[in-house]
Design a protein that fits this description.
heterotrimer; A alpha/beta (380); B alpha/beta (346); C mainly beta (110); B: 346 residues; Peroxisomal Thiolase, Chain A, domain 1; 2 domains; nine-stranded mixed sheet; three-stranded mixed sheet; 11 helices; 14 strands; 32% helix; globular; C: mainly beta; five-stranded antiparallel sheet; 5 strands
Chain lengths: 380, 346, 110
Amino acid sequence: MRRVAIAGVGLTKVGEHWSMGLKDLFAEAALKALDDAGTDDVDALYVSNMCASTLQGQLHLGAMMADAIGKSGITALNIEAAAASGGVTFHEGVKAIASGLSKSVLVVGVEKMSDGLPESVLATQSMSEDQEYTAYTGVTNVGLSALMYRQYTEKFGAKAEDIAMFAVRSHENAEGSPHAQYPFKLSIDRIMASPMEADPIHMLECAGIGDGGAAVLLRPAKRASDGVEVAATSVATGAYYLSGMRDLVSFDAVRLASERAYKAAGISPRDVDVLEVHDETTIAGVISLEDMGFAEKGRGAAYVAKGNTTRGGETPTNTFGGLKARGHPLGATGLYQIGEVALQLLGEAGACQVQDAEVGLAQSLGGLGSTCAVTVLRRF
Amino acid sequence: MKTSGTVGIVGYGAYIPMNRLKAEEVNRVWGGSGTPIEEKSVISIDEDTVTISVECARYAVKRAGIDPGEIGAVYVGTESKPYAVKPCGTIVAEAIGATPRVTAADYEFACKAGTEAFQTCIGLVSSGMVRYAMAIGADTAQGRPADALEYTTACGGAAFIFGKKPDRTIADLEGSYSYVTDTPDFWRRGLEMYPRHGNRFTGEPAYFSHIIGAAKGLMGELGTEPKDYRYAVFHQPNTKFPINVAKMLGFGMDAIKPGLIVPYVGNTYAGSTPLGLAATLDISAPGDRILVVSYGSGAGSDAFSFVVQEAAPGERGSDPSVSKFIARKCYVDYSVYSKLRGKIHR
Amino acid sequence: MGCGAIHFPRRPVCNVCGGRKMEECKLGEAGRVVTWTTIRNPPAGYDASTPYVVALIELDDGGRVLSQVVDVAPEEVKGGMRVEAAFRRVKEDGESGIIEYGYKFRPVIE
């Protein structure tokens, strides 16, 4: 299998883009990535998206987006794995290069959520769950997190404020982030005073709604000047129902995906210099940190509260703001994470730069941890 | 009306939703001062006549200890059907496991729709056409805001499963009598949300004349007198009417007290007499004779004479008694009541 | 069937022992609350009941089910609380469409 390099990165600002549709967001990101790579050569397009079929009534995104950038004729397709779509689609794009079947693959995540009414967006997000048995109860994705949150605090005595610090840290790191939706600090007091979203999780502990496009161009790694290579990608699934979860305070899929990725890349958690974690809710971020081995089970909240995940800390996490502050355009998020890790390793992170970053990891979750995609990038 | 062979009640179940609206709350909003009852039951936002019917049907099946597949008929008597066309009966039959070998339908005869269903079930069982037949009286009665009936229009129901000897029965039927005339005391046209009524016309020429007609008709046929009855259950649209008709017929307060739940629950319309009977069966003892006389506007009364067979309620299973449902309560104010009853919408 | 695990919803293959032979059984009707949350921002179709409680319930027969818990104020729900199955309206297809009835749980009436 060939080694794969990241040749270009293109990210749009995450926000409410009232005058941009799916195609516009896609094109801005894709063309930016191509310009960054200094090439127009693409032989395969992998589009990552979750909501278009419901919020825009739009299917068949592969062909649509290939056409949008004047590339009709190439291989093109759309991949969906709930909020893990980005990481999963990237995994498939990497395989296309690694296998030798393609030589220039554009992987682009795009999502447009601001057109939907809040209750429609919530219902769409719930489509990641079994419609007849889980979404049927009216539970939202934050609600599912809340069910785990309560078990977590009961089992480990973790403090609500410590868990909420995950959002504080993500916002701290978003300051200076050029493409973040909310590039400003958010205090713990404001978070704890915000209304409950799904008890006991506060509204400001949850990622918001935004539009965005994130693109990465992949090609075979040949020269050291290629900069960043893909050290590993892995995708694992976990229990699809809360009622079938082995352990209500752990995501088995996260543990499996990260273990496989560490093995393939020949690394362990302490080798990771830059980490992008799926903080759709603060508790999801905390549990993910633990299941990837960055903190002991039950000690993740304290680890974050102590300052270990700041830009200068032991494990710089969500260095451009994460899902909470950079934003979470569902199908694009995974590619934002991967693009951000690449920018860090290339030294192109500007105000958000983490010094001497050699190895970075991006983790994406779909549903209640029923899909996890882990990507490890490494500087040449 | 007499049956061939002895028909009896093999199981019964009740259900009353937990919300309550006090009469004084209605007065607070509309400036009245009446208190025909203390408080009435109000459904939650996710309840309706079908859910009430299923709940009491499930309790009835449990209490009967029978295989629901042997229930050959399910009838729901109500004037508050969620579907104008699609019987509540089919949903209940499916939910309790009586389908597909079952006949099902809904009955309408205002507040006596439930006991109408009693008559049909008794006939089906008596003829041997089915082994068990279930009759449910349930309603989520709608009160027109500021109308006198708003104090009392309530939600609840009870289900009765009829069977025939030699099956084990809780109470046996001695006979029944239906007294029906065309009397327009209270009605609702097809697309109207609220019914209308003839005010004082609903009293003597309607409620009283039909209940008395049916009661006297039945006792005449059976050769019984008020003193032969330990208990009597009369339709209870408010607290005064059943007390008065009992007195007029010669029954004392002791006889009607156990079944008189209207002060704390309100008028559950088609559920009213069935719930009164359930409450009475809850505390009765073998050998007790019970007179049951319903009333439905339009108008008519069904009278039944039962003799309790089985031992005390404690031995009839641990399912909630009517008194437990009455005790299970949570007060709502007029605005929440309005939301729950669909009078105000998002 | 092999390992005796109870599954809800039903599944074609057991995720505990990998067995394919399943038998339909009636689930226990009562159990206890394991964990719960209160939904304050509902998805489309669920706004009528907001705020409502959703809980993971462990039935007496060992099976687990995710369901709403009704007939109790959200602040009164406690871990370990005894609940029983109830038949309620879940949602409806507008004013003229089909009403979807189903299961929710409520504190045991005793």
